[in-house]
Design a protein that fits this description.
The complex is a heterodimer of chains A (187) and B (762). With 187 residues, chain A is an all-alpha fold. Chain A has 11 helices and no strands. The radius of gyration of chain A is 18 Å and the shape is globular. Helices cover 12% and strands 37% of the residues of chain B. In chain B, a hairpin with a 2-residue loop joins strand 31 and strand 32. Chain B starts with 28 loop residues before the first helix and ends with a strand. Classes of the chains: A mainly alpha (187), B mainly beta (762). Chains A and B meet through helix 1, helix 2, helix 3, helix 6 and helix 7 of A and helix 1, helix 2, helix 3, strand 25 and helix 7 of B.
Chain lengths: 187, 762
């Protein structure tokens, strides 16, 4: 769900002075941001803490925000990425990849494996151990369905650099899921 | 499959094709391209995409965080505010502008600091405000007893306004005889020598109060002069029933117990599709009932329905009828109820339906799924809305748009079923309506303390605020006419005081008022409304003719409603300083952004008329309210040309000319000229901002034919709405020019500043 740009710019200008307008922006973007944060943290309590941090930072900074041709969501995602990194720096992730590797069964079609949420969570967890930038690019692409250009805007990288991150990330995920070995065995 | 069920990054749809994501597929062209030579990586991407976390946030957390943020924003804002200005500025002014005006009032009223005992100090309730209700009384509070006659003698109000005075202690109340004009900058001045206290103390300077009034229909009649609807009682309605106009003008109610004498219409079905098992009989069970346009016995069209709609060509009627175990049957019959056939049997209710074409129906299944079905019974899912987003509660005729009501609070979405793109309808909740042509949506915006009535061309994201009869009243029961040229709503002024208002769009000028209703619907031509009232005997279906309703697709002046809507949206954006909307609504080489003066407070759309080449010429006055640096309103004259797109769609501004800003001259000003042309008459209504000297009106206003001859017209002046109505009885060929001479005077004896001429009619 995207806000029309003109309306969003108008709303942002109002939000600099009007609490209700900021509330309206929050209403629109809360879901996106929360889900993105949750995708990265997969812990409800941590996701709520980081989401709160994101919106309070946005509130404090919106007076200085100037539309740059990109939607406000790009700015909010940038804040989110930083907040998530801060969270990881202060608290190492506790999820383990062992489970994901253990349940991977190369004998089954890959999509068929995703049959329940427990397994799905373990598959998604394979992203967690990727280097931070690959992790961010993969989450924005596959968790948020973003365009490469949008991801580049959020991460401050070229579209080509984002492609490289996702390519490497995908290979990394396959390694962590044991799929590479399985394919090689089949071949 | 786990996952969030979001619409995803599906293949861009073509026209009305269903996006793949709605069909539960997933396709990312960027990743397909990236992994073109490595299908195993694309497969991994699909695996990850399918397993992404399902993260529905806790609504309590969402609400708590929102409350904390808004409270923090309020605290931050309070710390930043340095003047006692109003909380909201719907008129489009800026904080800086208001602050400057507040400073003006303070400076003009300020007594010398050394002697408060002997110097007069005054404050006003309206000073520096920009959305004062036209019904308000101006109060000036003095710091000591005043020489009342002297003060009253020194009061000047611009625009000239007849007032009465009353004193309550040291406070002077100035009550307009005919209320204040809406959307108008006012200046109240009391000469310095007249500001004299009983003790002999004087003011250090003249008293000058600048304020503006809230937008109301400038030329429209107020309650007292708006004609009342004269309803005709048709018969009973059932609880929760809704209405529809049949193609022949009959009124159809979805549920009512048939009165004695009602005739059954349904016959056996030759359709290969399933036929309904039985038809209701008069006096027993609630039925779908038609009240014929010419009177006579009601006709039972079928069993009671939750929703009903006639096909675009008027030959078929689709209804949603309660089925087994809480589900619904979607039934299609002839427009007269004959040959009913069940197209769809749904296990969940079908609360809304609409015709996408003469052979396809779009309907809502449950609360979150929109499906379509053709007359052969083939159906498909068109869209699925996540439950957390809200419920689909309305479908536009034509099936292109759906309204998604929010799960809680306000902020619903307009969903384009063709593209899957949704846009917010700011502050919307339940009161949303589509025009029958599907081109206009109207809703009540509840983001502010006083609800606002908004309309916009569907999918345009250019909302326009409609003036309502009572600016602070709550609004419900919104309905639009077929072409979006009229709107109906129920205004709740206070408990026990409700009124149905039928008004023109986009001006909001009321056409008629009536008793409150629980449902209202327009006839195809917009000249009649049907509604349900609550009487002692229960809900009752009534119908009434709308006085002054315009012809379909055109405003009274011959200007297409689409052009009128675009014009109002453009001028509204000028006042708001919304450059994005200005760019969207104008040609690139028109220079709309560059030529629009900064800091506008309000505008009058004085006139609009169709040119022979189909373009629209409009005349607008742009206004900047007084500030501390400039103590009188500034105005600029603007002329606009609007042209329809090559595909016959919306209008944009293709040329505009704006004069230099100048001080508004004293004297009466014309704020609106509207024309109604019929085969045997021409009626021109001219709205003013001032109370006029009635003895000067008839002689000052003339209608000239295309050859320059004066047309023998009669002029009637309504002091309450400050409107002169000029009527010429006879056929008019060619354009007519309205001329208003400078001999026109206001009640203070001030002349019209300059001769006014404008073209009337097409």
């Amino acid at each position: 769900m995207t806000l029309p740009r003109a309306y969003e710019d108008h709303l942002v200008e109002r939000a600099k002075k009007d609490a209700d307008a900021f509330g309206e922006l929050y209403d629109h973007y809360f879901g996106q941001i929360y889900r993105f944060v949750y995708s990265r943290l997969r812990d409800q309590s941590a996701a709520e803490d980081v989401t709160s941090e994101v919106f309070f930072k946005a509130l404090r900074a919106i007076g200085r925000y100037k539309p740059s041709g990109h939607p406000l969501s790009a700015w909010l995602y940038q804040i989110s990425v930083n907040a998530i990194n801060d969270h990881y720096r202060s608290k190492r992730p506790t999820s383990s990849l062992d489970g994901a590797i253990a349940v991977a069964d190369p004998a089954r079609a890959v999509v068929d494996r995703v049959v329940d949420q427990v397994e799905a969570a373990r598959v998604w967890a394979a992203i967690d151990d990727l280097p931070p930038q690959q992790r961010t690019a993969m989450t924005l692409k596959l968790g948020e369905d973003m365009k490469l250009a949008q991801i580049g805007t959020i991460m401050g990288k070229s579209e080509g650099a984002v492609k490289l991150l996702i390519h490497r990330g995908m290979i990394g995920v396959r390694q962590r899921l044991g799929i590479v070995a399985a394919v090689e065995e089949e071949v | 499959m786990p996952g969030r069920g979001r619409s995803g990054n599906g293949r861009p749809p073509n026209g009305r094709d269903v996006p793949q994501a709605w069909l539960a597929g997933w396709f990312d062209p960027e990743l397909s391209d990236l992994f073109h030579d490595q299908p195993e990586l694309l497969e991994t991407a699909r695996l990850l995409r399918a397993s992404r976390p399902d993260a529905e946030p806790d609504p309590r957390f969402r609400n708590r965080l929102r409350a904390s943020l808004v409270a923090e924003a309020e605290r931050t804002r309070a710390r930043r505010r340095w003047f006692p200005g109003p909380a909201h500025f719907a008129w489009g002014g800026t904080l800086v502008g208001v602050a400057a005006i507040a400073a003006t009032v303070f400076a003009l009223f300020r007594a010398p600091a050394n002697d408060h005992q002997t110097t007069v100090v005054a404050l006003s309730n309206v000073g520096a405000q920009h959305a004062v209700s036209p019904d308000d009384v101006i109060t000036i509070a003095f710091n000591q007893p005043m020489d009342q006659r002297s003060v009253q003698a020194g009061v000047h109000i611009q625009p000239a306004t007849q007032v009465s005075y009353s004193w309550h202690g040291n406070n002077l109340s100035i009550a307009p005889v005919h209320h204040l004009a809406g959307n108008t900058p006012y200046t109240v001045t009391i000469d310095q020598q007249s500001v004299r206290a009983s003790s002999g103390a004087t003011a250090a300077s003249p008293i000058q109060i600048a304020f503006g009034t809230a937008s109301t229909p400038p030329a429209g009649p107020k309650t007292g002069s708006a004609p009342r609807l004269t309803p005709v009682r048709l018969g009973p309605a059932g609880p929760g029933a809704v209405l529809a106009f049949a193609p022949d003008g009959s009124v159809v109610v979805t549920s009512a117990v048939p009165p004695a004498g009602a005739a059954a219409a349904a016959g056996p079905s030759p359709s290969p599709l399933t036929s309904p098992q039985s038809s209701p009989t008069p006096g027993t069970t609630p039925s779908l009932l038609e009240y014929p346009t010419g009177g006579g016995s009601p006709v039972i069209l079928g069993p009671a329905a939750a929703a009903a709609a006639f096909s675009p060509n008027g030959s078929l009627l689709a209804t949603s009828v309660a089925g087994a175990q809480g589900g619904s049957d979607l039934t299609v019959s002839g427009a007269d109820g004959h040959q009913p056939a069940i197209l769809i049997t749904s296990s969940t209710p079908i609360p809304a339906l609409s015709w996408a074409s003469n052979d396809t129906i779009v309907y809502v299944q449950g609360t979150s799924t929109v499906r379509s079905v053709d007359l052969s019974g083939v159906s498909r899912t068109v869209a699925t809305v996540p439950v957390s987003t809200g419920s689909v509660t309305a479908l536009a005729a034509g099936g292109r748009y759906a309204y998604v009501a929010p799960a809680q609070g306000t902020g619903g979405l307009l969903l384009d079923l063709g593209t899957g793109v949704s846009t917010p309808l700011s502050g919307s909740a339940d009161d949303v309506a589509f025009s029958a042509d599907g081109k206009t949506v109207a809703w009540v915006d509840r983001t502010q303390s006083s609800p606002k009535l908004r309309t916009e061309p569907t999918g345009s994201s250019t909302p326009l605020t409609v003036s309502t009869l009572y600016p602070s009243a709550d609004l419900t029961q919104v309905a639009l006419s077929a072409d979006g040229g009229e709107i109906a709503y129920v205004a709740h002024r206070h408990p026990g005081s409700r009124q149905l208002v039928v008004a023109q769009l986009p001006s909001g000028a009321p056409l008629a008022i009536g008793a409150p209703v629980s449902d209202v619907v327009f006839a195809a031509r917009g000249d009649r409304v049907g509604f349900i009232t609550t009487e002692e005997l229960g809900p009752t279906v009534e119908t009434a003719t709308v006085p002054g309703a315009s012809a379909p697709n055109q405003t009274a002046s011959g200007v297409p409603s689409a052009a009128s809507t675009a014009l109002h949206a453009f001028v509204d954006a000028q006042v708001r300083g919304d450059n994005s909307v200005l760019s969207d609504l104008s040609a690139a080489d028109a220079g709309a952004v560059d030529r629009t003066p900064a800091g506008l407070s309000r505008a009058y759309i004085i006139s609009a008329a169709a040119n022979p080449d189909g373009t629209i010429a409009a005349r607008v006055e742009l206004i900047i309210d007084p500030t501390s640096k400039h103590d009188s309103p500034e105005t600029a004259d603007e002329t606009l040309t609007l042209t329809q797109g090559s595909s016959g769609g919306s209008y944009i501004v293709t040329a505009l000319h704006v004069s230099a800003l100048r001080d508004q001259l004293a004297g009466p000003h014309i704020v609106n000229v509207s024309t109604t042309v019929s085969p045997d008459s021409l009626v021109v209504q001219i709205g003013f901002d001032s109370d006029l000297d009635t003895s000067t009106i008839s002689k000052a206003i003339a209608l000239l034919s295309s050859s320059g001859d004066a047309l023998g017209a009669t002029t009637v002046y309504d002091a309450d709405s400050r409107t002169a109505t000029v009527t010429y009885s006879g056929a008019v060929s060619g354009p007519v020019t309205v001329v208003i001479a400078t001999s026109l005077r206001d009640v203070d004896g001030q002349q019209l500043p300059a001769m006014f001429k404008t073209r009337a009619g097409a």
